[in-house]
Design goal:
By secondary structure, this protein is mainly α. The chain is built from nine helices and no strands.
Length: 199
């Protein structure tokens, strides 16, 4: 099967997720700048989640640029990822509205962890379909960042459970910073494939 519809559907879902999250930013009562101060936790949680959704969109885009076709298993594993990402507006709003409290931050970390697991399963399905010697498999390699991130999420979850929720949230922010640095592994594969197609 061709991949075009999967990519278009995923792009649409991610755009809707970001739209829903920004709608949680309520306009403050009052015209003074001081009226914005109580909104900092909501804005910070929105900013963090916006970055995460952007990271997933970037990586998803690169992933599907490196492959040529999909099958039923890939479609379902992609839907699995979109399910966990679609919960981001809820967990983001709960964490922000409750000033990074214990249980909202813990649930946010669980959401991030489930997104990471779902993304790993999607990668696994793609590699299984295209082969262990495929360009995508070579590009991903040992995927160190992909293995570090879930560990950071788990540490953040444990800290939130122990009532150190803001320290736990710092681990979620740290994991996001890992992915802000552009990953050129898959880009190189896509460029090589484009060169091969021209020859």
């Amino acid at each position: 099967m061709k991949k075009n519809r999967l990519e278009a559907f995923s792009d649409g879902v991610l755009a809707i997720i970001i739209t829903i999250m920004v709608l949680e930013l309520k306009v403050p009562q009052g015209e003074e700048l001081a009226a914005l101060i109580p909104l900092w936790p909501v804005f910070l949680s929105y900013l963090l989640s916006f970055i995460y959704v952007g990271i997933y969109w970037n990586n998803h885009h690169h992933l599907f640029q490196a492959i040529r076709q999909v099958n039923g298993g890939i479609l379902w594993s992609n839907n699995h990822l979109l399910f966990w990402l679609s919960l981001m507006p809820f967990t983001t709003a709960w964490m922000g509205e409750n000033h990074f409290g214990r249980w909202p931050t813990l649930l946010y970390g669980v959401n991030l962890f489930c997104c990471a697991v779902a993304y790993y399963l999607l990668q696994t399905c793609l590699i299984r379909h295209h082969g262990a010697n495929s360009a995508l498999a070579h590009a991903l390699g040992k995927d160190i960042k992909g293995k570090i991130s879930p560990v950071l999420y788990l540490l953040g979850i444990v800290l939130a459970a122990l009532d150190y929720s803001r320290t736990g949230a710092a681990f979620f922010i740290g994991a996001a910073f890992l992915w802000l640095v552009p990953d050129t592994r898959i880009e190189r594969v896509v460029e090589e494939q484009a060169g091969d197609d021209k020859e």
